[in-house]
């Protein structure tokens, strides 16, 4: 986790903020839940890249940027051992709970899943 936070975390957070039209989104990791190297390695492309892509879609105009700025203050990422994922946007916190250990398919949010949630909740 230390190597990820040192080398990859800050650039991904910066990319997310840029995609969000400059919104100051804070990102927290439930570090204790990331117990395997495979889970840590998948944070960048399994979580961030998909969210960033969807964030660009939502923030393609001023209305979307304002909705994200007002509606998302924190991104909280949790690895879970059980298959599948959940997304929740409550009280300004977007929480991602997913099996991030190198799994693919239905264990991780796909492209469009974040967009769908944001369009419903923001």
Mean pLDDT: 95
Cα-to-Cα separation, first versus last residue: 32 Å
Task: Kindly report the spatial arrangement of strands forming the biggest sheet.
Answer: 1-2-4-3
Largest sheet: 4 strands, mixed
Specify the structural class: alpha/beta
* Strand elements, count: 4
What is the overall shape?
Answer: globular
Poorly predicted runs of 5 or more residues: none
Proportion in β-strands: 15-25%
Overall radius of gyration: 13 Å
Number of helices: 5
Amount of helix: 40-55%
SSE succession: HEHHHEEEH
Number of domains: 1
How would you describe what is shown here?
The chain has one domain (2-121). α1 (2-19) runs parallel beside α3 (43-58) and α3 packs across α5. The chain is globular and about 40 Å long. The chain has helices at 2-19, 37-41, 43-58, 62-71, 113-121, and strands at residues 26-29, 74-79, 85-90, 93-98. The chain has five helices and four strands, in the order αβαααβββα. With 122 residues, the protein is of the alpha/beta class. β3 (85-90) and β4 (93-98) form a beta hairpin. It has a four-stranded mixed sheet, with helices on one face. The chain starts with a helix and ends with a helix.
Strand and helix map with partners:
Blueprint: H1 2-19, E1 26-29, H2 37-41, H3 43-58, H4 62-71, E2 74-79, E3 85-90, E4 93-98, H5 113-121
Parallel strand pairs: 1-2, 2-4
Antiparallel strand pairs: 3-4
Helix pairs in contact: 1-3, 3-5
